[in-house]
Amino acid sequence: MTDTRNDSLLWSAQAFIWAEADMLDRRDYEAWLALWRDDGFYTLPIGDTQDFDNALNLCHDDAHMRRERIKRFQQGFSISSAPPARTIRTLSRFVIEATEGDDVRVRCAEHLIEDKFGRQRIWAADLTYTLTVTPDGFKIRHKVARLLNSDGMLNSFSYLF
Amino acid sequence: MTIDNRIELVPEPDELVFKDHIRTPMYDDAALFDAEMDRIFKKTWVWVAHESEIPDKGSFKLSQVGRDPVIVVRDRKGRIHVMINRCRHRAATVCEVKQGKTASFQCPYHGWGYGLDGSLRALPYPEQYGDDFDKAQHGLLKLRTESYAGMVFATFNEEVEPLVEFLGPVTKWIDLFMKQGAGYPVKAIGEHQFSVPMNWKIQLENTTDAYHFPVVHKSFLQSLDDETEEVFSFLEQGKGYVEDLGNGHSVMVMIPELVDLEDNLDAPIPERFQTLAQELRDEGHDDQQVRRIVRAVGGAGFNLNLFPNVSLSLAFFRVLTPVNVGCTDVRHIAIGMDGGPDAANRARLRLHEHFQGPMGFGSPDDAEVWERIQRGVQGGAELPILINRGLEDEQPGEAGPRGHISAETGMRAAYDMWKRMMQS
User: Fold this and answer.
1) A155 occurs within a structural domain
2) Where do the TM regions start and end (chain B) (predicted)?
3) Domains in chain A: how many in total?
């Protein structure tokens, strides 16, 4: 690649998404909430649907639901989150799909291993981000985490992808 | 000579289920599980699909009857068939697509082709089977299939009573439940699926257990607005009840005002549905219709728990599939209004996502406590598992014993049926 401008966009998007992944593994959810635009959506779809509003998803969170979800994780009344499974994730295979105005669409692969009750489970997902460039860096407009087996038999999740 | 393949159980069913408790092997005895698959899941009506999942001629979906994988399909005449997903030649599955539409099923191994009704239509090079080969004897193995109000059940048992008799007083409650279509047909609009390391009966019990709700679902309750939290505080209000409906079925009424969704249409529209109500008005629905739809969107005020594998719970269908003694697959099927307003169906989807499924605010906590039971029974095998709550003030109801909203009346109903079936 010789296009240094795109290389630099890829690098900064990667750095942002890696930092987000680190927050999620460390459960630094306050910092995670601050990464979002107010009108942003966090979606785990089922199957190959694109019409998230009119389909059943695993979650399809606006700002209010994201805050409620984090509160649920943190307040200690949810037995599945107290304690939650611990996670280690790696993200790779980053591709810039498109840029439009101040938005950039990036996708990558996520491998996540969870550990609870002495049992480890492994999950794979395609992540697609729509990030908006702002004076304070990227803000997430939409994050879609599509599990490889999203329409299959899953388990319950006490963490975020 | 006949071969007696009945599994000898130690202990026997009547040493495991009592009026006020059950014994530990109920959750962790593998031989008992095998016997249950034989004496319950092969002997009674098992829910396999909602008719809206196979809407057209040629529509099919894969399902399970106990451990047997089945295809549920609608033929060209609109009749529904349930048949074992296994070629009659060398046993390969004839379908591995979860849901779709087809004109026939063809085995990928040697090309035997079956019609939508399971009949064997054609096979390559048939002459080697000789003249007396009878195709009529080689159709897919079919189960007896009957429906009530769109709920499709199948059974291996040719002797079992007709479905409506098996359901008995349940049919009245199914009719009430389906009023959440608000005049539109009820339609399956997606599902959450998750597997839990637990015995299937732990799930069966849970849908009739109101006692756990304020404890396990505290974090869900906290995520609601005050008005809705009040609606879901049915245990404190204590207005509801649990009633044994016979044959292992039971109903748990949590919110009596929402038993009949066509009643009380003049009640004020809850705050959380004001935006939806306005959207519906803007679409041109009259006031009465808006009220009816909005009320339906919130779901019914009861859980109808059917033995052995399905429940109609508030606003969704809960389906369990036993996998092995310590593993159960659970599906939460979202339902909406077929042809109803998109805004109403979107509201239903968001409500379903809020509580149900792998990332809901409710199901993961349920799954955690169910697994904790399965882990707990690894110790203290001599200890009883109590099902005596509310025995004290149980009264005769319309169909059977009726107990307090938090009574374990529904579990006792299910275990009565369990014992009856396991002993026969």
Assistant:
1) no
2) none
3) 1
Q: 3-state class of A141 per DSSP?
A: strand
Report the alpha-carbon distance of residue B61 to residue B107 in Å, rounded.
17
- B359–A58: do the CB atoms touch at under 8 Å? yes
Please give chain B's pLDDT, 424 residues, in tens. 556 667 777 789 999 999 999 999 999 999 999 999 999 999 999 999 999 999 999 999 999 999 999 999 999 999 999 999 999 999 999 999 999 999 999 999 999 999 999 999 999 999 999 999 999 999 999 999 999 999 999 999 999 999 999 999 999 999 999 999 999 999 999 999 999 999 999 999 999 999 999 999 999 999 999 999 998 999 888 899 999 999 999 999 999 999 999 998 999 999 999 999 999 999 999 999 999 999 999 999 999 999 999 999 999 999 999 999 999 999 999 999 999 999 999 999 999 999 999 999 999 999 999 999 999 999 999 999 999 999 999 999 999 999 999 999 999 999 999 999 999 8
Residue A44 maps to which CATH number?
Answer: 3.10.450.50
3-class secondary structure per residue, chain B: CCCCCCCCCCCCHHHCECCCEECCHHHHCHHHHHHHHHHHHCCCCEEEEEHHHCCCCCEEEEEEECCEEEEEEECCCCCEEEEECCCCCCCCCCCCCCEEECCCEECCCCCCEECCCCCEEECCCHHHHCCCCCHHHCCCCEEEEEEECCEEEEECCCCCCCHHHHHCCHHHHHHHHHHHHCCCCEEEEEEEEEEECCCHHHHHHHCCCCCCHHHHCHHHHHCCCHHHHHHCCHHHHCCCEEEEEECCEEEEECCHHHCCCCCCCCCCCCHHHHHHHHHHHHCCCCHHHHHHHHHHHCCCCEEEEECCCEEEECCEEEEEEEEECCEEEEEEEEEEECCCCHHHHHHHHHHHHHHCCCCCCCHHHHHHHHHHHHHHCCCCCCCCEECCCCCCCCEECCCCEEEECCCCHHHHHHHHHHHHHHHC
Contact: A77, B191; criterion CB under 8 Å: no
Alpha-carbon distance of B30 to B32, in angstroms, equals 5
Q: Do A59 and B195 touch (CB under 8 A)?
A: no
Q: Which domains does chain B have, with CATH numbers?
A: 46-155 (2.102.10.10), 169-423 (3.90.380.10)
Collapsing DSSP to helix, strand or coil, A57 comes out as coil
Q: What is the pLDDT of residue B4?
A: 65
Q: A48 lies in a domain?
A: yes
Q: Write out the residue range of the structural domain in which residue A63 sits.
A: 4-147
The alpha-carbon gap from B63 to the nearest alpha carbon of chain A, in Å, equals 13
Mean pLDDT for all residues in chain A:
96
Residue B242: strand pairing partners: B252, B403
Q: Which of A66, A69, A79, A148 to mutate: most B Cβ within 10 Å?
A: A79
For the cut 70, the answer to whether the pLDDT of residue A2 exceeds it is no
Nearest to B346 among A46, A53, A77 (CB): A53
The whole-angstrom distance between B400's CA and the closest CA on chain A is 35
CB spacing of A54 vs B223 below 8 angstroms: no
